[in-house]
Amino acid sequence: MREYNRETGQPVAEDENVTEIKVLGPGCAQCHSLTEKIKKSLAEMNLAIGVEEVKDLKEISQHGVFGTPALIINGKLKITGRVPSDKQLKSWLEELRPSAQRKT
């Protein structure tokens, strides 16, 4: 419902417990590669989290990002200008898992 509201321009209530993953970029090959890598990693890790692709250059610049692709997780810029390694990406995604379910 949250994504539907966002897509239709309706107000979206910000929930502290909602995880947000954004890939910022104009839709280039690297942007697509990052999005697919995230989706694959989420599936492998059994994390049911959506990935939003932000292609609007004005919105991208509002995040202070000038190199793409860029990855934002819960409002924090994780990487810009390149696709992270699988190991680094999974490390960031593991932080999203509730602490009781984290692998030690």
Automatic annotation (TrEMBL):
Gene3D superfamilies: Glutaredoxin (3.40.30.10). Pfam families: Thioredoxin_3. Residues 20-94 form the Thioredoxin-like fold domain. This is Thioredoxin-like fold domain-containing protein. It comes from Candidatus Schekmanbacteria bacterium RBG_13_48_7.
